[in-house]
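FAQ: What does the model actually see?

It sees only this:
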Amino acid sequence: MILEPFAGPGGTSTGLALTGRTDTVGVELDPDACSTAAAAGHARVRADVATFPLHHLAGRVEGLAISPPCTPWSRAGKREVTTRPTASRRAPALSATRREK
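And it is asked to produce this:
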């Protein structure tokens, strides 16, 4: 099984499915993201990754697909996107690009 914390609506799950992995299980707190993922055929557990118990998965997980949310968009973050949409969308990508150089 591939465990996908911060799973969101299913982008990574879709990519993994395109590679043939159909055993991805996502953990996501946002109910709308869970509903979208389920409608697309992706398995979701609605839970907070910070408190999600892992002991029952021992020996069953062979990989992780971890992509923490962009804090301006996330409900866990400051939701800056609602007040500064252009700057908030560009800032994470620009910061990542600068770090890679």
